[in-house]
């Protein structure tokens, strides 16, 4: 069965401990999806000019954050890797002449494991993590995603993990979204639903409040959207599954593409 692909906001690492509307949605989503043969995740927290691929048979859990409650650093997500799936990803990249490199021993960063801990808490599904390159053009990012589209017919769940509105320097004490964040998300939603690639690829020039929503120091959180959109280039359908906010300037949205 061909699986849809998803852009999933990972928000604050504290999502791993929280029980709220968004975390309950992630739990339901994982239950509804059943048990895919494997999971491939483009993570905002792995930004590299070269395409990198984890090749581990077993993953460690990265606690790549600071200043959080001690309990956060005790959490683990001991998911297996799948060297055969890593090799399949590598072969698809090679077929399209994309320079890439296998990486052993990196572990899963919180952009990967926080959402998967909610979706698939048993940590029994093989995971392959992929880097993103925030300096590539949106069209290049999209085309890298297209290379992996065949995996969706092979029982593999493809995810882009990041955040459409992700500004850590403007965080508030409450979750009421800033008006500019709502405006930006609405602009993205309208063009995603129309699969308006020309406008989306030019988001930095056209989207309202783009510098607040996607600050220059945080563009890596936005770009997983283009990678995962590319995996759905054939169908070109996008559906907003949920939209919520943390601290006013982090949007928690999940988009399904098919």
TrEMBL record:
Domain of life per record: Bacteria
Residues covered by the Extradiol ring-cleavage dioxygenase class III enzyme subunit B domain: 5-238
Keyword Magnesium tagged: no
GO terms, molecular function: dioxygenase activity
Regions annotated as coiled coil: none
Gene3D superfamilies documented for this protein: LigB-like
Keyword annotations from UniProtKB, A to Z: Dioxygenase, Metal-binding, Oxidoreductase, Zinc
Pfam hit, one: LigB
Keyword Metal-binding: yes
InterPro entries referenced in this protein's UniProt entry, alphabetically: Extradiol_dOase_DODA (IPR014436), Xdiol_dOase_suB (IPR004183)
Cofactor: Zn(2+)
Family: Belongs to the DODA-type extradiol aromatic ring-opening dioxygenase family.
Protein name: Dioxygenase
Taxon lineage: Bacteria, Bacillati, Bacillota, Bacilli, Bacillales
């Amino acid at each position: 069965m061909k699986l849809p692909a998803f852009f999933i906001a990972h928000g604050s690492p504290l999502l791993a401990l929280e029980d709220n509307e968004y975390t309950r949605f992630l739990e339901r989503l994982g239950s509804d999806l059943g048990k895919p043969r494997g999971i491939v995740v483009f993570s905002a927290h792995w930004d590299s000019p070269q395409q990198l691929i984890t090749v581990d048979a077993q993953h460690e859990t990265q606690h790549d954050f600071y200043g959080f409650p001690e309990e956060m650093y005790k959490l683990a997500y001991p998911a297996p890797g799948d060297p055969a799936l890593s090799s399949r990803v590598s072969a698809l990249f090679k077929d399209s002449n994309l320079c890439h490199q296998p990486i052993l021993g990196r572990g899963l960063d919180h952009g990967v494991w926080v959402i998967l801990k909610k979706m698939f808490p048993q940590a029994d599904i093989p995971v392959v993590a992929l880097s993103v390159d925030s300096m590539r053009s949106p069209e290049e990012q999209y085309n890298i995603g297209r290379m992996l589209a065949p995996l969706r017919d092979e029982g593999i769940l493809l995810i882009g993990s990041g955040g459409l509105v992700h500004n850590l320097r403007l965080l508030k004490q409450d979750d009421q979204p800033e008006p500019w964040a709502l405006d930006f998300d609405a602009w993205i939603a309208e063009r995603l639903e129309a699969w308006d690639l020309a406008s989306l690829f030019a988001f930095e020039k056209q989207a309202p409040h783009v510098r607040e929503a996607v600050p220059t120091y945080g563009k890596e959180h936005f770009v997983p959207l283009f990678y995962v959109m590319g995996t759905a280039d054939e169908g070109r359908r996008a559906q907003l599954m949920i939209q919520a906010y943390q601290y006013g300037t982090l949007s928690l949205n999940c988009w399904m593409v098919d």
